[in-house]
């Protein structure tokens, strides 16, 4: 009887070109974590996009096409795993910037076809949502807070392909808002670390910044109005004194960070209470995405979880941000239950995990992105 699955994973949905080899232990024929990450290669593109203050899709797609084969070669070599030892090749098939997603899907299909291996197309968000199973062996069901540059959702993870959205951002994702705030204040890209660094010397209570949607029921969030309030506060300073001082900037960063953390923590606490009857005897909530690295946010989430009697699971930072190990693991879970995908599986810019949930405001004419 087979005891494990070994998959090569590829991730190229935004601005990280990644490849990884992961071994998933099997129990009764199904993956059961924690898994073993044999290798993980992540090629960051931040320097390519820094001058523009955000990700440029065309530049990202070109970089993926140039780097994917190199990342795959490095991942296989680091794992000491030849193609013949793999059970399948998995790649992010959506959602994401379509040029990058297409690059990864076509690369994975080519490898699978050439080596005679099964191909598995993975939902990028499922990769994040299933990461606690890779790292901790977390059992279903659990909650997942995904906070990144492109996404903000609170999901009930009921199974490898069963997700229910409890809430999400109706406008900007938190990472996107951090990037915009950094640009407004003359800081660098990516904005999250820059804002957090400046906030260390700031007074979070100096400016009266709003906590949007806190007066409404439910778990949906908003960050666009908070960003606008910060811009107005900055403009008032500029008008009154001809510019902003270093302390002004630190105080604005601290106030924005505190407000964002409060919104995320309080909305998450609502989700914990709403999901509690289904959570089982050892309720757990996991957090993933680049914004999960923010220490103020981590502290607020830990306090909220502890107050409700829940365990907070935070994978290592290298697995919170986009990576291919999570894609390989999600691919193993999908392969074991559903089998391989056909080679005509399309790349998808939009692919919601909870297809039955109403689209969030701002999802566009083509429907919900995620």
List the domain count as a whole number.
2
The strand count comes to 11
Structural class: alpha/beta
* CATH homologous superfamily grouping of the largest domain: ATPase, nucleotide binding domain
Q: How would you state the average pLDDT, rounded? A: 91
Tell me about the largest β-sheet: 6 strands, mixed
What is the straight-line distance between the termini? 37 Å
Parts with pLDDT < 50 across at least 5 consecutive residues: 362-368
User: What's the CATH class label of the largest domain?
Assistant: Alpha Beta
CATH architecture of the largest domain: 2-Layer Sandwich
* Silhouette: globular
InterPro entries: ATPase_NBD (IPR043129), Gcp-like_dom (IPR000905), KAE1/TsaD (IPR017861), TsaD (IPR022450)
GO molecular function: iron ion binding; tRNA N(6)-L-threonylcarbamoyladenine synthase activity
Main location: cytoplasm
Family: Belongs to the KAE1 / TsaD family.
Short recap of the structure:
This protein is α/β, with parallel strands linked by helices. The protein contains eleven helices and eleven strands.
Structure description:
The protein is of the alpha/beta class and 370 residues long. It folds into two domains: 4-138 and 319-338, 2-Layer Sandwich (Nucleotidyltransferase, domain 5), CATH 3.30.420; 142-317, Nucleotidyltransferase, domain 5. The chain is 43% helix and 19% strand. The chain contains eleven helices and eleven strands. Strands 1, 2, 3, 4, 5 and 6 form a six-stranded mixed sheet that branches. A five-stranded mixed sheet has the order 9-8-7-10-11, sandwiched between helices. α8 runs parallel beside α9. The radius of gyration is 21 Å and the shape is globular. Residues 362-368 have low confidence and may be disordered.
């Amino acid at each position: 009887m087979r005891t494990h699955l070994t998959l090569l994973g590829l991730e190229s949905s935004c601005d990280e070109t990644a490849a990884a080899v992961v071994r998933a232990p099997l129990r009764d024929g199904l993956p059961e974590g924690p898994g073993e990450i044999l290798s993980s290669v992540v090629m960051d593109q931040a320097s390519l996009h820094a001058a523009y203050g955000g990700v440029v899709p065309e530049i990202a797609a070109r970089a993926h096409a140039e780097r994917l084969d190199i990342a795959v070669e490095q991942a296989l070599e680091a794992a000491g795993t030849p193609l013949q030892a793999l059970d399948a090749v998995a790649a992010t098939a959506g959602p994401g910037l379509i040029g990058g997603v297409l690059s990864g899907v076509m690369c994975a299909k080519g490898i699978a076809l050439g080596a005679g291996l099964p191909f598995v197309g993975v939902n990028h968000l499922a990769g994040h949502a299933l990461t606690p199973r890779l790292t901790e062996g977390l059992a279903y069901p659990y909650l997942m807070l995904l906070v990144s540059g492109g996404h903000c959702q609170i999901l009930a993870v009921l199974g490898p392909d069963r997700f229910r959205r409890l809430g999400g951002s109706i406008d900007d994702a938190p990472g996107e808002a951090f990037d915009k705030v950094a640009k407004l204040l003359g800081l660098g890209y990516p904005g999250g670390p820059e804002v957090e660094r400046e906030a260390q010397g700031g007074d979070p209570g100096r400016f009266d910044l709003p906590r949007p949607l806190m007066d409404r029921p439910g778990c949906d969030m908003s960050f666009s109005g908070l960003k606008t309030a910060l811009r107005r506060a900055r403009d008032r300073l500029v008008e009154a004194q001809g510019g902003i001082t270093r302390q002004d900037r630190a105080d604005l960063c601290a106030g924005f960070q505190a407000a964002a953390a409060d919104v995320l923590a309080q909305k998450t606490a609502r989700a914990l209470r709403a999901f509690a009857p289904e959570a089982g005897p050892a309720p757990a909530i996991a957090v993933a995405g680049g914004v999960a690295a923010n220490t103020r946010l981590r502290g607020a989430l830990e306090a909220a979880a502890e107050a409700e009697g829940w365990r907070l699971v935070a994978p290592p930072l290298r697995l919170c941000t986009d990576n291919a190990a999570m894609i390989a693991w999600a691919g193993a879970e999908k392969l074991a239950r559903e089998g391989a995908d056909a080679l005509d599986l399309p790349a998808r810019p939009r692919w919601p995990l909870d297809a039955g949930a109403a689209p969030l405001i701002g999802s566009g004419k083509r429907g919900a992105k995620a």
